[in-house]
Amino acid sequence: MSTLSLEQVTKQFGAFYAAREISFTAEEGEFVTLLGPSGCGKTTLLKMIGGFHQPDSGRILINGQSVNNLPPEKRNTAMCFQSYALFPHLNVAHNICFGLKQKRLPVAEQQLRLAEVLKQVGLQDQHLKMPVQLSGGQQQRVALARAMVTRPDVVLFDEPLSNLDAKLRESVRFEIKELQRQYQLTSIYVTHDQAEALTMSDKIVVLNAGNVEQIGPPEEIYYRPANRFVADFIGAANIDIAHITPAEQPGFYRVRCQLGEFYVRSPRPPLAEHCYICWRPEDARFVPQPQTGDNHFFLTLRKMAFMGNLTEAWGDNDDGKLSVRLQLIKKPQAESGARVCFRLPEDAIHFLEPVAEGHDEMA
Ligand SMILES: Nc1ncnc2c1ncn2[C@@H]1O[C@H](COP(=O)(O)OP(=O)(O)OP(=O)(O)O)[C@@H](O)[C@H]1O
């Protein structure tokens, strides 16, 4: 078991920053996901950890030792790519042992490790098959076995599921996570798929244009996004501008925004009186008997879409300047064009970054 730390790691391609002063740690056996949109620098970071790119500045440490000057083969990291990265002309056993052969490990040791890892990934009976004779999920397990067999300090996953269809992705996601947990593999996992990141990770590093936006466990990232980018990128969010003042009770705040007045409980105080706020579409409750007062608001319904387990709805506030998205468990008895009442629970509103001066859309 090993730890991995990045300290202020920067990588430029010409004048362009692919990674700018990135710092995070993966503790022993931790599953850390690098999540962000295309081009945000995920693969560049993974390649620097693996030794395929050299950082311009900053340090990469494995078990507390800098590996900046070590070539890839001396780093004891293992890459796990999409399933198609298996060698098509080699059977399962030869695919798995490829790295061990290159390291010139004695054949007896190779056989021992092969048997062990085949058992770990549940492919004991498949070792003579060629990759084309395996299902997508089995191919993915071979790719993982090939990484695990070298007993790496850190496993680096580069979008390993992007080649699989939606259903298989889900089951293989759980298989990888289970193996990672069982064998306490310190793992760095690159994806732009938020569902993958939320279900698999111990910790998520949210990246945007080469910068870290937030680092935290999945629940914190989802329920306490640090800023508009994170709130919007992970899940759906309604974002508004608000004036926030402390209420009498500690930990409670009065929030005035375009939707109305809200009484909010937040473990995190706002960073300024004038901040962006967000709330999740699933947090609003339909109120059949309209009420006024704190935490109630009115929308003119614009559109509703019945999705089976929930109904998606879109509506505008009274002055028509704010459009809001809702996910309701029960379809409201109302038609498009109706003015209907909703309520937000006290803990639904989250405080984001301060609004820049002169940018007051509420005025
Ligand atoms: N060798 C290179 N030379 C110049 N620019 C590069 C090079 N490699 C990457 N980049 C640029 O750096 C940025 C980050 O690339 P990177 O591959 O790390 O993104 P990513 O987040 O992994 O994206 P994706 O999800 O699309 O794979 C991109 O704008 C890319 O064009």
From TrEMBL:
GO molecular function, one term: ATP binding
Keywords per UniProt: ATP-binding, Nucleotide-binding, Transport
Pfam families referenced in this protein's UniProt entry, alphabetically: ABC_tran
Coiled-coil spans in chain: none
Classification via Gene3D superfamilies: 2.40.50.100, P-loop containing nucleotide triphosphate hydrolases (3.40.50.300)
Domain ABC transporter: 4-234
Keyword Metal-binding annotated: no
Annotated SUPFAM superfamilies: MOP-like, P-loop containing nucleoside triphosphate hydrolases
Keyword set includes Nucleotide-binding: yes
Superkingdom of source: Bacteria
Name recorded for this polypeptide: ABC transporter ATP-binding protein
Lineage: Bacteria, Pseudomonadati, Pseudomonadota, Gammaproteobacteria, Enterobacterales
